[in-house]
Amino acid sequence: xxxxxLLLSFITLLLIGILSACGAGGGNExxxxxxxxxxxxxIGYFPNIDHVPxxxxxxxGYYEEALGxxxxxxxxxxxxxxxxxTALKTGEIDAGLVGPAPVMNNYSNGADVKIIAGASSGxxxxxxxxxxGIESLDDIHNKTFITPGVGCTHDVQFxxxxxxxxxxxxxxxxxxxxTTGNPAQYQAxxxxxxxxxxxxxxxxxxxxxKDGAKVIVDTKDIAYGTTLPNTVLVTSNKxxxxxxxxxxxxxxxxxxxxxxxxxxxxxxxxxxIQSIKEITNQELDPEIIDSAWERVRYTxxxxxxxxxxxxxxxxxxxxxxxxxxxxxxVDTSFLN
Length: 336
Known about the structure:
- It is a single chain.
- By secondary structure, the protein is α/β, with parallel strands linked by helices.
- The protein has 2 domains: 10-121 and 228-320 and 330-334, Periplasmic binding protein-like II (D-Maltodextrin-Binding Protein, domain 2, 3-Layer(aba) Sandwich); 124-217, 3-Layer(aba) Sandwich (D-Maltodextrin-Binding Protein, domain 2), CATH 3.40.190.
- The two termini are 25 Å apart.
- Strand 6 (144-147), helix 6 (153-163) and strand 7 form a beta-alpha-beta unit.
- Helix 2 packs across helix 10.
- Helices cover 38% and strands 18% of the residues.
């Protein structure tokens, strides 16, 4: 098990063109046993509202409790799914939470990745800036929209939704321009007039709305709505084969965190606020989190059919070169 990383400050986050769908952790260098004689397991996640299960597990010590005294747990946060998947493929992290789009895209291209549980669903919202003059989809032609990454979960959801209205991005012959960036920057982009629309995850959507952005497509209406796993728990097949008991306990801790969220909303909210502040140096208003919470559902369930349909949409939108077959991507046996 390898460890390697870099703590990203809030200033760094603002310079990275992401969230995403979709933040940064402590440093890791060597693999295997530590000088203490302990094995190290590195868990990755993002400083987003849909990644709260990882924040709860960290705060409550659920991974430490489940994996035992001989395993040291390290946490590393990421600005986007691409960075997360690179870390997983290179062994910098062992498991963690990430959006389904980068997972499916990487899997379709032969990457060793396995979804072992769901974490959250819903939470994607499309909002327009006050300066854009956009009141509905009729007004978005020739405008510029932003997402955390090209082909990220929120990008695919929005562009799939637009197909029913015969609207497409300029990438595939339409008039709607697309750019990418960190959701923490979106308000600044709106104010500068650089972008008009954002397909953005919570809590950033609620922040933009509070600052005057208009909801154009809400979570319940966008493609795949609340049925699509917005965040999943993943690891590699190699890690499963070499550490089956560890993986079982990782899922056990994850399930405990999800259960805690659903039974202790206010405490979970407060933990999320503090965790995001520590990572991004930005303290979110409890009212913002409460608003965001209404659009997100925390669950360990994984709907494989929805994942396949979503991946087919990625292909139809030309994010993937070949039609995907996700057979073998999901292993829910550790949830039993």
